[in-house]
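FORM 7B: Structural annotation worksheet

SECTION A. Query
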Amino acid sequence: MPRSRNLVASRRRRRKILKQAKGYWGRRKNVYTVAKNAVEKAQLYQYRDRKVRKRLFRRLWITRINAAARLNGTTYAKLIHGMKENDIDINRKMLADIAVHDPETFSEIVKESVK
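SECTION B. Predicted structure
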């Protein structure tokens, strides 16, 4: 009895990898073994950087809040501490958005929290 190789499934597997490698440079886009390594590495970076993106955005929000707080005569640490003591619950994302788009409201928040 001849050996069964299931060419349909293996071709589909290769085609899927090569489709994911579309747009890569050189042999990475059309040689299966090279493309497979490139796609696997890209998926590792993709998985890792979904978590890194969250850290980077938090750093950005903190930088914006600190800059706006210093314009109002205080620091980020004092502002956050004052907000916690006065039960003002605004997350850093919203606080940074207020600091950038509505400086008057941010100044009111600073006055309420840092007395």
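SECTION C. Observations
The chain has five helices and no strands. The chain has a mean pLDDT of 94.

SECTION D. Sign-off
Analyst initials: ____
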